[in-house]
Amino acid sequence: MHITRHCDYALRVLIQLALHPGRRLTISSVATAYGISRHHLTKVVHELQKAGFVVTSRGQAGGILLARAPSEIGVGDVVRAMEPELALVECFNPGSGCRITPNCLLKNMFEEALAEFLARLDEVTLADIVRPQRRNLIRILEPPAF
C-alpha cells in the first residue's frame, strides 16, 4: 500500500497544529516549516476542513486550528478520509475485470491485511504521534512569529 502525498501532507498539517494547541497557524507558515508547496497545502487543508479535522478562518486573525483535541483525532480516521482509494488490488472494486476473482484467495488475503493495517492506525491518535517527540518537533518545525 502507498500513502499518497495528499494524505502525508494532511498528517503533517495536523502534527504541526497539535504542536501548537489553540494557536492559529497559516497555510504559509506550515508550508514553510515543511518546505512544501503552499498551493498544494491549501487543497489539503480544504479537505481536512471538509472532513472535520480542522477549522479555518480568513482575514487578519485567520488561520487553521484543530477542530478537536489531538487525543480525539485517530490516524486511521485521517487516512480513511484523505486517501482517495484504499483498494489494494483490482478485485476490490465492483465489476472487476480480473478473470480469476471467483477462485482467487488473494482478495481475502489483501482485505485482511488492509483491515489489520487500518486497525493498527486506529490505535494511534495525533497526540500519540506528537507527545514523545514534542520538543524536537517544535524545534525542527518552529513556525515564524506573527
Quick synopsis:
It comes from Alloalcanivorax profundimaris. The protein is mainly alpha-helical and 146 residues long.
Task: Itemize the secondary structure elements and their pairings.
Layout: H1 5-19, H2 27-34, H3 38-50, E1 54-57, E2 63-66, H4 75-82, H5 106-122, H6 126-130, H7 134-141
Task: Explain the overall architecture.
It is built from seven helices and two strands. A two-stranded antiparallel sheet has the order 1-2. Helix 1 crosses helix 3 (38-50). It is elongated. It is mainly alpha-helical and 146 residues long. The chain has a single domain, classed as Arc Repressor Mutant, subunit A (Orthogonal Bundle), CATH 1.10.10.10. Strand 1 (54-57) and strand 2 (63-66) form a beta hairpin. The mean pLDDT is 86. 51% of the residues lie in helices and 5% in strands.
